[in-house]
């Protein structure tokens, strides 16, 4: 008899709205002249002021190889990655690993299982799936009649072969900023930031000017090639990816099973999850561990008059994490609004193992 083992990879992928953050900050920049000079050279190298200012939105699609560790064994899954951003305040990232329709007689795992992860000291979570967004609440009605209201940030939801993860706000506020700045050397309008020149470092044999960029609680560094003036690497501190696994029909022993899940919409109406779904709550003990993320950019090509990287290589704590071969950049796509309709962040990961 075959049992399908599912593994969930916690990565920092999400949709964010920065409107509130932008409203709280001004346009005051306390940056040094050397940093601003290097940024100006980099902006010219990637295409110039006019070309950059014309970019209001972007969708990036590519093939991804994601490395994750289960039971001490590192594995690499092949899939696709899609990143969409729209200035000044929208960002989404979807990673699909594996083929959800392969290996099962019914053409894919269809039974839905919801897994909600909370921190030890904070029971608030968000269910960010199937159109349920951060503006809605999740109510868990347990067998003993106790009602739990879940309404914040740390969660993992598993839906068949779909995996939905979000990260804590302190690690995610600058994801839009980091991505847009690394590609366009531009911050979202109205977002306060500080740029500091920190010296010269070598990346893969290239001498790079290093710019420290800070906005909010998530600083990062951008490494700019002294010769080409193109960005070659970005580094920052982020949450260490968490992996856990469970059998589709046999959930982990440290979860609450057989509970009813109600979705409370913004208008006060409630939607009950169907009877094919079960909700589990898993607690994360202690603080979320952090590590240095390094994202290297290479293979620059011309796109609509801009130089953009077609190879992204990411490590976490010095270990391989993700390699992306970009297939296309769409600049100002007409359908960009569709990318944010569900305000969801999705990682879809499917691994099968016969036992």
Short description:
With 355 residues, the protein is mainly β.
Q: Describe it for me?
A:
With 355 residues, the protein is mainly beta. The protein has 5 helices and 22 strands. The protein has a single domain, classed as outer membrane lipoprotein receptor (LolB), chain A. The strands form 5 sheets. Strands 2, 3, 4, 5, 11, 12, 13, 14, 19, 20, 21 and 22 form a 12-stranded mixed sheet that branches. It has a 4-stranded antiparallel sheet with strand order 8-7-16-17, with no helix packed on it. A two-stranded antiparallel ribbon has the order 1-15.
What's the structural blueprint in terms of helices and strands?
Layout (H helix, E strand, L loop, with lengths): L4 E5 L6 E2 L1 H5 L9 H14 L2 H5 L3 E14 L2 E14 L3 E8 L15 E7 L17 E5 L5 E4 L4 E5 L2 E5 L2 H4 L2 H10 L9 E10 L2 E9 L5 E6 L5 E9 L3 E5 L12 E5 L5 E3 L5 E7 L5 E14 L2 E11 L2 E13 L14 E4 L6
Oligomer: single chain
Q: What's the CATH architecture?
A: Clam
Distance between the termini: 7 Å
Stretches with pLDDT under 50, minimum 5 residues: 1-29, 100-173, 251-259, 274-283, 343-355
Overall pLDDT score: 68
The gyration radius over C-alpha positions equals 21 Å
User: Helix/strand/pairing class, anyone?
Assistant: mainly beta
Q: What can be said about the biggest beta sheet?
A: 12 strands, mixed
Helix content: 10-25%
Question: Quick one: how many beta strands?
Answer: 22
């Amino acid at each position: 008899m075959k049992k399908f083992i599912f593994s969930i990879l916690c990565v920092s992928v999400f949709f964010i709205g920065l409107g509130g953050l932008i409203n709280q900050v001004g346009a005051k920049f306390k940056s040094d002249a050397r940093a601003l000079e290097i940024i100006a050279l980099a902006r010219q190298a990637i295409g110039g002021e006019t070309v950059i200012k014309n970019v209001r939105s972007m969708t990036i699609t590519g093939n991804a190889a994601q490395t994750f560790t289960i039971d001490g064994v590192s594995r690499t899954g092949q899939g696709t990655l899609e990143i969409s951003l729209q200035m000044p305040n929208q960002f989404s990232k979807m990673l699909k690993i594996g083929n959800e329709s392969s290996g099962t007689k019914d053409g894919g795992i269809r039974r839905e299982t919801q897994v909600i992860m909370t921190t030890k000291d904070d029971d608030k979570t968000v269910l960010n799936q199937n159109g349920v967004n951060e503006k809605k609440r999740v109510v868990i009605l347990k067998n003993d009649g106790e009602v739990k209201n879940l309404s914040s940030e740390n969660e993992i939801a598993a839906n068949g072969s779909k995996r939905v993860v979000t990260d804590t706000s302190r690690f995610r506020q600058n994801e839009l900023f980091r991505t847009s700045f690394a590609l366009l050397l531009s911050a979202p309008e109205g977002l306060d930031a500080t740029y500091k020149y920190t010296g010269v470092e070598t990346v893969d044999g290239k001498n790079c000017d290093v710019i420290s960029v800070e906005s909010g609680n998530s600083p990062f560094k951008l490494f700019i090639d002294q010769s080409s003036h193109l960005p070659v690497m970005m580094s920052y501190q982020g949450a260490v990816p968490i992996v856990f696994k469970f059998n589709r029909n046999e959930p982990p022993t440290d979860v609450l099973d057989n509970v009813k899940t109600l979705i409370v919409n913004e208008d006060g109406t409630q939607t009950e999850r169907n009877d094919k779904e079960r909700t589990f709550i898993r607690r994360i003990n202690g603080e979320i561990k952090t590590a240095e993320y390094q994202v290297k950019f290479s293979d620059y090509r011309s796109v609509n008059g801009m130089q953009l990287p077609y190879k992204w290589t990411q490590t976490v704590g010095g270990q391989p994490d993700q390699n992306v071969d970009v297939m296309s950049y769409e600049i100002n796509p007409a359908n960009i609004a569709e990318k944010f309709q569900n305000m969801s962040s999705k990682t879809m990961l499917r691994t099968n193992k016969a036992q």
